[in-house]
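Give me the fold.
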Amino acid sequence: MRVVNFLLAIMFLGFAFVQLNDPDPVIWILIYGVMAVTCVMAMFHYYSRKVLLALMVIYAAYSIIYIPGVIEWLNSSNRVELFDDVAKMNHLYIEESREFLGLMICIAVLVWYYFRARKKH
């Protein structure tokens, strides 16, 4: 499991690095940076269930503001634009959908860690 946690930490650090040219880099570097730290802590079997739960709630609450963009993307005729670098400049919902998906990845990892922490106790 240490290898998986290490790879997740590297992935989240990569996500944070990519945010350097984002319009709102500070919040996203913090989001992904906290996730990288959480993954490193999991490498050493340190799971704070209260912290994991708090992060899940914060990330889920923050993701709510992106739901209209996700709905607009789902209703669009060309959903493949989500993976097009030029499309994000043409449609705000592309960026919002990407950010929503990033938060869902964070929440999925946090849920996984939370259940691992429950097994440990």
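Helices lie at 2-18, 25-43, 49-63, 67-75, 87-90, 92-120.
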